[in-house]
Amino acid sequence: MKKILIPVDSSDCAKRAIDEGRKFMDAFGSEIVLLYVVGIRIAAQRFSTTVPKPNTTEDPYVAKEKGQAEEMLQSYIDSFGDKKDKVSMMIIHGIVADEIISAINQTDVDFVIMGSHGIGSVLYRNLLGSVTNKVLHHAEKPVLVIPECKKQ
């Protein structure tokens, strides 16, 4: 396990996945890649009667989310202390599950650690988040799913 991919958001499950990644890093000397996907916003176009034009300039909401993601990922990297030089970040824009699968299947990572639920999962699934479910079914590399924290 030379390189581990950890898809993250700001959820508690993502933070637990990072903690597990830290354990693998300590045990195997692995490199960690933290991945954040800025999701595509399609709701406004769904009800439009016109074909959307290709966007040649970046959406200000996307730019803002990328900036916030970079700050969040940097704080996650800093939490690795003296081993932070073995941690890198990737920020991608697209459909979340599809981009995670692409990153898994088209890069040199050999293991994935991800939370069972992200910040949007409450709306979709109770047992396993919809993104995690899709990743499990389409990833060509092993995926360790960190279970959701039970609220007391």
Strand proportion, as a percent range, falls in 15-25%
Low-confidence stretches: 121-127
Specify the number of helices: 5
What structural class do you assign from the helix and strand content? Answer: alpha/beta
What does the overall shape look like? globular
How many domains?
1
- Largest beta sheet: strand ordering: 3-2-1-4-5
Tell me the major beta sheet.
5 strands, parallel
> Averaging pLDDT over every residue, what do you get?
84
CATH topology-level name: Rossmann fold
Tell me the name of the CATH homologous superfamily: HUPs
User: What is the succession of H and E elements?
Assistant: EHEHHEHEHE
From the alpha carbons, calculate the radius of gyration and give it in angstroms.
Answer: 16 Å
Describe this structure in words.
This protein has 152 residues and is of the alpha/beta class. The chain has one domain: HUPs (Rossmann fold). The chain is built from five helices and five strands. The protein has a five-stranded parallel β-sheet, sandwiched between helices. Helix 1 links the parallel strand 1 and strand 2. Helix 4 packs parallel to helix 5. About 5% of the residues have low confidence.
